[in-house]
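Aim 2 progress update. The chain analyzed this quarter is reproduced below.
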Amino acid sequence: MLPTAPAPHADVFVFDVCDTLFYSNTTFDYLEFVLRAQKRSGAQRWLTLLTKRWSPAFVGLAVLQKLRGGDPIKTVALRLLRGIPKAELYRLGQQFVQEFLSTRKIAHTHTLMADVAGASTRIILLSASLDPIVAAIAAELKVEFVSSQLGYDAQGRCTGELVRELGGDKPRALQELLGPDASVGRLAVATDNFTDHGLVASAACRYVVVHKPEAKGFWQDLQPEFIEAYSA
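Predicted structure tokens:
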């Protein structure tokens, strides 16, 4: 369902990325894209073992996640990027957006963004995805962004670890971007993430992307405008 009231009076409009702007878990799709481009077949096999539900590695890490929290599957998978130069990761990020994500846009949220682009509304991508991906998306859309950040050593090579994980930290990241004493003003948010419930609750204009009807129940207390994206 396409929203009919695209927050024309919002001062700041925050968009999530994965499964909000694109039908994609961009972190893992990007990892697969990079490893294929680098012709690292062994690392590709490891990624498959880490991400397929039938894999013992996936099952073991999923159990660990339930016991200890965090995201051990993502943590281990990111090690596959170790040693790749930052410049190459950013180049592949641009290629990933152009060749992969361009065919997986969620039309309703892109229309929503286009309706406020060029107005006085400040558009910001807040995403737990990786900086080479979100930087490329933001450049394509001509908007600001804050994302999770990969670590890079003194030679500019990826360490395979995050120096910042944005998941669960979006309200603070938004305030840091705007400035510690700045007022957010009238906020609009578009997301599909359950972990963004607090951010959505703080918004005057609320848009929630749902990929199956039963997901609406989680958000009903906030009475958002639902964007139904039931199929890719």
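Residues 86-99 form the longest helix (14 residues). Residues 1-5 have pLDDT under 50 and may be disordered. These observations will guide the mutagenesis experiments scheduled for the next reporting period.
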